[in-house]
Amino acid sequence: MLHLKSTDDLQERLIARYEDAEMQRKTYRTAFTDREFLSRPETRGIRIQLEMLKPDLVQQEHGIDSTIVVYGSARFKSMEEAQQLHAVALQSADSAAIAKAEQALRHAHYYEEARKFGHIVTEHGLHCDQHQRLFICTGGGPGIMEAANRGAMEAGGKSVGLNIILPHEQEPNPYITPELSFKFHYFAMRKMHFVMRAKALVVFPGGFGTLDELFEVLTLVQTKKAQAVPIVLYGSEYWQKLINFDAFVEVGAISPEDLHLFSYADSPEECWRLVHGVLHTPM
User: Fold this and answer.
1) What is the pLDDT of residues 119-165, one digit of tens each?
2) Backbone Cα Rg of the chain
3) Distance between CA atoms of 283 and 263, rounded to whole angstroms?
4) Are 208 and 178 in contact (CB under 8 A)?
5) How far apart are CA 218 and CA 254, in angstroms?
6) pLDDT at residue 281 in the model
7) Whether residue 3 has pLDDT greater than 60
8) Running DSSP on this structure, what letter comes out for residue 232?
């Protein structure tokens, strides 16, 4: 004899079937809208591809074909900010704060010079055809990066910022063109985007991150994995004190001709002449 299930029994079964609403939500979602799925270790390759593709397509849409990349310390202050810090420190009579503020004052000229360089590059580009135009590109953070983006904005042009997720969140500086401000998870993808459009690289004084970026670019050019472009070390006193490049030659670690991979500059105008002279773009 056939025993039909009661209506109440069927309802209970239906409720039990869909009781795990969270699981239903996760599994039925399309793969490309499922953030949890895209964050799994197994989908790392897809995330890397996306970090490669998104900034590339957006920059193409904005006509960003050629950049001058500016590296440098995130810790250097503008002259105005350094002077304010110094005034506050003097009022506090705190010797440690005064020493720190005096250090900020000594380094503030680098910020102002990066700002002026960003202005020079951008102003020149505004008088060029689109295919000859050069755009400032930085790591998108504070300090020297902010200064170069700021100079570009003050000149009335666009500039790019390639930010990175760090343990202590680094916010993009306010001078990047908003639609050209990008955030990366992978350092490797960020570095690749620095080099992809770079027609020159200018390296202001900085710390571990700046050194990492400098030596990676030097290695890529030395090994011909990247096209040779002008690499300018800004602040000859700083760089010659920090790194004895001649010692690499003396011990046979690099060839003498590798010293020609880079040059030094001590003013925004000299830096621009070095870059412009190699690029051969019309003034």
Assistant:
1) 999 999 998 887 789 999 999 999 999 999 999 999 999 999 999 98
2) 26
3) 21
4) no
5) 11
6) 45
7) no
8) E
Cut 0.85: pTM above it? yes
Residue 137: partners with Cβ closer than 8 Å, 6 or more residues away:
67, 68, 69, 70, 159, 160, 161, 162, 194, 197, 198
- Compute the distance between CA of residue 56 and CA of residue 63 in angstroms, rounded to an integer: 11
d(CA 122, CA 105): 27
Q: pLDDT per residue over 23-48, tens digit each?
A: 566 777 888 888 888 899 999 999 99
CB-based burial label for 252 (10 Å; 0-12, 13-18, 19+): exposed
Per-residue pLDDT band for 103 (boundaries 50, 70, 90) equals: very high
Helix, strand, or coil here: 162? strand
Q: What stretches of the chain show up as alpha helix (H) in DSSP?
A: 7-17, 21-28, 35-38, 44-61, 79-92, 95-126, 144-154, 187-196, 208-222, 236-242, 245-250, 268-279
